[in-house]
Fold this sequence. Notes:
The protein is of the alpha+beta class and about 700 residues long. The protein is built from ten helices and 39 strands.
Amino acid sequence: MKRFLAASLFFLCAPLLASAQWHYPKPEKGAVVDDYFGTKVADPYRWMEDVDAPKTKEWVEDENKLTFDYLSKIPFRDKIKKRIEEIWNYPKYSSPQKAGAYYLFYKNDGLQPQSVLYIQEGPGGTPRVLIDPNTLSADGTVALNGISVSWDNKYLAYMVAKAGSDWQEIYVLDLATGKKLDDHIQWNKFGGANWYHNGFFYSRFDEPKGNELTAINEFQKMYYHKIGTPQSADSLVYEDKTNSKRSHDIGATEDERYLQLYIGEAGKKGNMLFVKDMQNPSRGWLPIVTEFGNETGLIESEGTQLFIQTNIGAPRSKVVVTDISDPSQKNWHAIIPEGKNVLENTSLVDGKLVCTYMQDASQHVYFHDLKGKMLSEVQLPTFGSVFGFSGRKKDTEVFYTFTSFTYPPSIYRFDMRANTSTLFRRSEVKFDPEAYEAKQIFYHSKDGTRVPMFIVQKKGLKNDGKNPCFLYGYGGFNISMTPSFSSLRLVLLENGVIFAMPNLRGGGEYGEQWHDAGTKLHKQNVFDDFISAADYLCDEKYTSHDKLALAGGSNGGLLVGAVMTERPDICKVALPAVGVMDMLRYHKFTIGAHWASDYGTSEDNKEMFQYLYHYSPLHNIKEGVKYPATMVTTADHDDRVVPAHSFKFTATLQEKGGPSSTNPLLIRIETKAGHGGGKPTAKIIEETADEDAFMFYNMGITPKY
């Protein structure tokens, strides 16, 4: 294929307003100063934490006007948006979920704001709409957050969230008729409906005092709701009046013989786990794990045996079995010992343990019998990511979705008895995988650690140091970045942009040790890994620092913010999204305290404060430094990483960096949207188009459209 980077198609243009004087809003500065172990830290924009304050709203309005005025003058912005719409406009399906005789799946016709839940009877049945969230709001900002089918396949509980908030409401409908019942649960967050008999367990917080989008969430409680009764009649089944930052979850095994209680705590890794035998409930909650520090989960039960996945004594995880007579650790028996690769997930289907492993950030699936013997491996098309393989114990078929960078999501049906995969539904996206190539390389970080990185680019692209590159990272919370297809990425790829994604420490790609190496007093390793990835791409002539964009969201937004303030010369464009920018106060909002297991807090001790202060993006912006062209993105309903992080960071960046740079330092604040989940299609396309246009324009590049 001929390279697109011909002079006639891919040429330089003079960045808009390059020599103009930027006139940023000048918000008032308060006199707030905090004392951390004798160090005085000013927080002049503390008032921006009140998102409802008139002056905060006025500042948001002024900033958005500046940003959208700038974006509107980019000549190819609308063409990029149109191209993204063309690429995005194809039917998208989820893997079916089997519920007795029913098959449930999500479908989006192409540009619908939200995906629609369908149901059909039998594999050849006619699909009908079960829940269409697009009818729940005029602007498509009400999203269907998840579903849960009762063990008898009679009821379906579904979770609804508004405007991107993490708060959700639970409703119930009759699965056979689709009739919505009167049941309605409020103030649920980070949980769903866990069925047991004629009702379900759920978690909730007390109704917030003050702004529900910023008020701290504590003293989570567990309730049981019986179908057909009001929430006011629900039974409180578990609470901890002493530990305000603990989280809880109660669920039942498929046979409903056992209840399982998970307990987590803000600032501590892992969970405690207890089980109750409902054939002998007088024994109470029996301890399986009574200390924090490791991840342990109950896979399922068979009679008196409990199958458990844990990383206790096994950083890459293992499967053990124990008996209800005494399920404590001293009676565990490992049936699938820790291996060289990371065991991510295990389910029990058709008498087999379905184990998903990760090897060098690519997933593999194996079947084991209940004694742990490996039976077979699922043959996947290439290196990539697998979603699905969930089912019930008597199911003889499961569905899964496979995807990779150049392999659009495809759904397969797996016959558990015949041990065969058949293609169930292929993606209809208009994409030529032969035009692109994906590879994995390994580079060395600052301390010599070997780090993997995926690189995706057009075939035949010459690595001469002149290619634009989009470097995306995360690096935290044991989350692994694995290969996946994104139609949003195609606008970049087809215009000669190289996409690179390193597997930074802090993630889970190599187990708990890899995660630990990027947390708390080791967090700098994550930034070093990202900086080394950028330097590698430049040294190997994939790109240059003048053609490099850094991007990441949430913890990845922190990553971009920390790296651009530590190394302002490292890139031409920075795109920090919904980032944790104030590392001294993040734990004081909504659910932020629960991130302390990765970050630590400024109140822990002097050493931890100094470490956070050293890299906190907000506190490391310096006067007189030329920062890269930056467009911060956030949303007014983000109640996970509250927008005040991005507000204070941007105000400080403009105040200190604005006079020294002709690069734009902007913030794009979405309305009626949150951290990202449930965002309607139109908003996704608009935001992506604006980010792409901003990047191209500030690199002096005109796309081919």
